[in-house]
Specification:
Layout: E1 2-6, E2 13-16, E3 20-22, H1 27-30, H2 37-40, E4 41-43, E5 47-50, E6 53-63, E7 70-79, H3 81-89, E8 102-105, E9 121-125, E10 134-137, H4 143-150, H5 154-164
Parallel strand pairs: 3-7
Antiparallel strand pairs: 1-2, 4-5, 5-6, 6-7, 8-9, 9-10
Length: 168
């Protein structure tokens, strides 16, 4: 998003606001010692299986009030074996129009939110056009769920970006 702003942490000026923040792996995978990962599972940019657990990557959008843009968290969600199998089936084809959402647990810690975002309940909606699934949080009073439902201001986007950027 083209937008001039000054970071409140360091005072540096930027001319864009990054709106996509992705996690490379589910928290479960990251918790496995690196030397054990190959023996315990496998991961790609879209799917992860580790031990008896299955995860898929999706997009958790947060509307920006007064804008057509959205801040998008690229997160991992646990899936049952059946739901995971269905996700793999749909990877290269469009879901049926009446494809039901699949339940999952958010499996990333988005450090700027308290309490923890780990294990928030989600619904996973498979998307047409080979797009990553849409992740919708259960409507609770968790700050991330509230922001997904109500949207966030541009000022809040700046706060998130400043908190998530590597120290500059």
């Amino acid at each position: 998003m083209q937008y001039a702003w000054t970071c409140s942490c360091c005072g540096k000026q930027f001319d864009t606001l990054p709106l996509d923040w992705a996690f490379d792996a589910p928290a479960y995978w990251s918790g496995i010692p690196e030397e054990e990962r190959a023996a315990r599972g496998k991961i790609s940019s879209d799917f992860c299986t580790a031990d008896e657990h299955h995860f898929l990557r999706g997009c958790l959008p947060i509307p920006i009030i007064g804008s057509d843009d959205r801040l998008v968290w690229g997160v991992w969600v646990s899936q049952s074996a059946d739901s995971f199998r269905r996700a793999v089936e749909l990877f290269d084809r469009d879901p049926d129009p009446d494809e039901p959402p699949r339940f999952g647990w958010l499996n990333n810690e988005i450090r700027i939110y308290q309490p923890s975002t780990l294990s928030l309940k989600t619904n996973v909606y498979f998307q047409p056009g080979n797009n990553r699934p849409l992740i919708e949080l259960e409507p609770t009073d968790h700050p991330l769920a509230v922001e997904q439902r109500a949207g966030i201001t541009l000022k809040r986007v700046q706060e998130i970006v400043a908190a998530m950027m590597p120290r500059h």
